[in-house]
Design a protein that fits this description.
Structural class: mainly alpha
Helix content: over 70%
Number of strands: 0
Largest sheet: none
Order of helices and strands: HHHHH
Radius of gyration: 43 Å
């Protein structure tokens, strides 16, 4: 008997019998997640359609608002660019006036027997212009 018991145990180990839990009906559940991303100044077209169903004419109002915002942004950027151009032009005009004044003053001093002061004024003026130019290039 002892030999049979061991034999059964080996057989059970090779081919285990399903337990009561394994015999019960098992269910398989599958989950599916869908993520949708949409980026832009307007809502997703499907959402826009739903807005229009809730409030008739809402989609048209949203589109008009987006168009107005775009027009406003373009005007703002255009005026900012125009202001920057004007500021750069004004800075160049003032730099030219200062350069003429410094170099002209240096020449005038040199001609009136103040060569050291005239040379210093012209050197400082030209040096300042060179430094300003080089810094603006960075």
């Amino acid at each position: 008997m002892c030999g049979q018991k061991n034999n059964l145990t080996r057989q059970q180990k090779r081919h285990p019998q399903p337990s009561a839990r394994q015999n019960s009906a098992s269910s398989l559940s599958v989950e599916q997640h869908q993520i949708e991303a949409f980026s832009g100044p307007l809502p997703h077209p499907e959402h826009l359609k739903q807005y229009d169903l809730i409030v008739p004419g809402a989609a048209d109002r949203i589109l008009k608002q987006a168009e107005q915002q775009t027009t406003h942004r373009i005007k703002t950027e255009s005026s900012a660019v125009s202001a920057e151009i004007a500021q750069n032009l004004l800075a160049q005009v003032f730099a030219f006036i200062l350069a003429l004044t410094g170099i002209g003053g240096g020449i005038l001093l040199t001609l009136n027997d103040h060569g050291g002061a005239g040379g210093t004024l012209m050197t400082v003026t030209i040096g300042t212009l060179c430094v300003a130019y080089l810094k603006s290039r960075k």
